[in-house]
Design a protein that fits this description.
261 residues; alpha/beta
């Protein structure tokens, strides 16, 4: 199935958007590595949904606006995006920083959401469970720590070096991720107080071998969000949508099917 790329200007900020498929709208919010390509799990989800994948401001080909200082700014911007795109009853799915962002959107205003799926989200702290510090990992440590199946890490390490343009995008993504999550590290100290405001059906997905956001965080998210369900994927690291794409899509489609029946 094909997808389209476009540039949308929302409240004065230009963002790059990929869009494909037919069905109920599903807005996917990417993590720290950005969303430069239409990935296989997006293609699978687009068989049943209209999948919309923006690049956050400060990432990839989107503008890097002066107003972007923190995750709160980004959450309010995405409420404007929902209005701009005319989305209603949209299924919001976010991974890692994108999962954190999705929760920040939902606690502010969930009236346009049909459901929420967060995958190994950052944003809270659980005493005694240390997160991986992705900002301090070497490229090899990053590749090896993101995946349970080291074949994915080997493939990442064997990839040819990025072009000059690709390197510039990589650096932009890293700088914006640092702006959002450097201090405090991947944390909004107040978020845990407000997750109870989320009332839309919520799916929490986690890999059992996540070294970036350890799976010990998963029950905390489940306990903080009423009406939520936790699914843990075995033999999986921080990126279930990549490492276990079929299972990830099965869980998301099954969950959305149940809550919209």
């Amino acid at each position: 199935m094909s997808f389209t790329e476009s540039l949308e200007t929302v409240t004065g900020t230009k963002i790059r958007l990929m869009r494909g498929g037919k069905g109920a709208p599903l807005l996917f919010l990417h993590g720290a590595s950005g969303a430069s390509r239409w990935l296989p799990f997006m293609e699978k989800l687009s068989e049943t949904h209209e999948v919309i994948v923006p690049e956050h401001p400060g990432f990839g080909a989107s503008d890097n606006p002066e107003w972007l200082d923190n995750i709160s700014d980004l959450a309010f911007f995405y409420l404007d995006v929902l209005d701009h795109l005319g989305l209603d009853k949209v299924h919001l799915v976010g991974t890692s920083i994108g999962g954190w962002l999705a929760a920040e959107i939902a606690i502010r205003n969930e009236t346009k959401l049909g459901s929420l799926t967060v995958v190994a989200p950052a944003g809270i702290r659980v005493k005694g469970i240390r997160k991986g510090d992705v900002f301090m990992w070497s490229p090899e440590e990053t590749a090896r720590n993101l995946f349970h199946d080291q074949a994915f890490a080997e493939a990442m390490l064997a990839a040819p070096p990025p072009s000059k343009e690709g390197m510039e995008i990589l650096l932009r993504n890293k700088l914006t991720s640092a702006k959002l999550a450097w201090e405090p590290r991947f944390l909004n100290p107040d978020l845990h107080k407000w997750l109870h405001r989320i009332s839309v059906p919520t799916l929490i997905v986690w890999g059992d071998d996540d070294k970036a956001m350890p799976v010990g965080y998963a029950p905390a998210w489940r306990d903080l969000i009423p009406n939520s369900r936790l699914e843990i994927i075995e033999n999986c690291g921080h990126l279930p949508q990549i490492e276990k794409a079929d299972r990830f899509v099965e869980l998301v489609n099954g969950f959305i099917g149940e809550v919209t029946r």
